[in-house]
Amino acid sequence: MAAKLWRCSTLGVFAWFALYALPAAAEKSRQPVIIHRKLRRSALRAKQTVHTRPALLATHVATRTQKVADMQDSALLIELAQESPSVAGAITEAATSGNKDIEVVQEGADTLSDNFNEEHDMLMTQILANGESLNVIKALADTVTQMKGEVDKLEAHEKLCRKRVADLEASQADRADDDRVANSVEVVEA
């Protein structure tokens, strides 16, 4: 009976904890609810863009740089003379910086071009060497073909010569037989 009572009291404590203690603790630590609403992109960008003096100066320099690209030299000098010193200085500084960047890029391009030309020369040398090797191999193959043709001619000539020697030996043997028969005496009985 004590075990049943113990189980009931344990269950009761858990039930009380679940019903009363947890919600009270949750209410104390609740965070405020934040409701989000969508904004159009243009409204969001309008909030983000902040016009400052350096940003305006940079856009002015960019537009001036575009104008500089479109103008002639004398027109450029006249335009720069009419600008305020700070804007003219910024334009000059931007041009100097751009010139340095162009020089760095030009040096890189020159190095790349030199490397390309050297590699091209090495490849051409290798191709010529391979071509010469192929020419030597072709010449050797032609020579071997000519030698095979000469060997075939010599073998045919050898056969012809052997046949003539055999014919001469056979004719000499026949002549020797004929001479022997002619020199022999035969008695014919009638």
Rounded radius of gyration (Å)? 57 Å
Share of helix among residues? over 70%
Order of helices and strands: HHHHH
Coarse shape: elongated
Our count of helices gives 5
- The structure class reads mainly alpha
Distance between the termini: 170 Å
**Poorly predicted ranges:** none
- Summarize model confidence as the mean pLDDT: 75
Major β-sheet, in short? none
General description of the model:
There is one protein chain. This protein is an all-alpha fold and 190 residues long. It starts with a helix and ends in a 7-residue tail after the last helix. It contains 5 helices and no strands. It is 85% helix and 0% strand. The radius of gyration is 57 Å and the shape is elongated.
Give descriptors for this structure.
85% helix, mainly alpha, 0% strand
Write the layout of secondary structure elements.
Layout: H1 2-28, H2 41-48, H3 53-70, H4 73-82, H5 85-183
Helix pairs in contact: 3-5
Quick summary:
By secondary structure, the chain is mainly alpha-helical. It has five helices and no strands. Helix 3 crosses helix 5.
